[in-house]
Amino acid sequence: MHRPSPTEFIQRMEWLSAEEVSLRAAALRAAARDWQDDVELAMLCVAAGNLEEGAIAARAAYRSAPHEPHSAYAFGVTSVAAKSWADAAEAFDRIGASFELYGQCRLLLALALYELSRCEEAERMTHEALGADDDTYGTLCALRSRCCVALGRLDEAANAFDEALVFSPKLTWVRAARANLPAATQTKIRTVVV
């Protein structure tokens, strides 16, 4: 039987029904597991809303194979869900550029750094990660704007908010945050060329 790679499994997760998630998780719980099985179980548990069991499986995978990007990814995702920002930062920082979900990992690392009040590093990370993954571009811009606000760089924040709105217009919190900037930045709206 072909065993899907952790990446293939993560990509297939959105296609599984709730029943399929439950059946696969039960089969994994009953069997002896290696780190790849723990990654799969962690992601299944997250999909099913069982964050506690997902975190346990992800931690086991990470302890068994800390240098495997998939175990770091699972541990990072469950750490973000648990708001365990130091663990999330550690895990996502181990993932290299060759990993398929690298852009998402850089975004989550920047979020963890921001939540740890390491705003300078988080802002630098968002700036470096822009362009790594088109799917995360708008969210990276939005996070960068939050970092700039925290650092008191309001003109840069306004520009980042504007760019976020161009690429992700449905991020309503961005529009509200942009409107809350001081009036001096409201007149300096930059035009973003797509």
Structure description:
This protein has 194 residues and is mostly helical. It has 2 domains: 1-100, Serine Threonine Protein Phosphatase 5, Tetratricopeptide repeat (Alpha Horseshoe), CATH 1.25.40.10; 104-194, Tetratricopeptide repeat domain (Serine Threonine Protein Phosphatase 5, Tetratricopeptide repeat), CATH 1.25.40. It has helices spanning 6-12, 18-30, 35-47, 51-64, 69-81, 85-93, 102-115, 119-129, 137-150, 154-167, 172-179, 183-186. Helix 6 packs antiparallel against helix 7 (102-115). It is elongated. The model is unreliable at 187-194 (pLDDT under 50).
Write the layout of secondary structure elements.
Layout: H1 6-12, H2 18-30, H3 35-47, H4 51-64, H5 69-81, H6 85-93, H7 102-115, H8 119-129, H9 137-150, H10 154-167, H11 172-179, H12 183-186
Helix pairs in contact: 2-3, 3-4, 3-5, 4-5, 5-6, 6-7, 7-8, 7-9, 8-9, 9-10, 10-11
Key features of this structure:
194 residues; mainly alpha; Serine Threonine Protein Phosphatase 5, Tetratricopeptide repeat
Short characterization:
The protein has 194 residues and is an all-alpha fold.
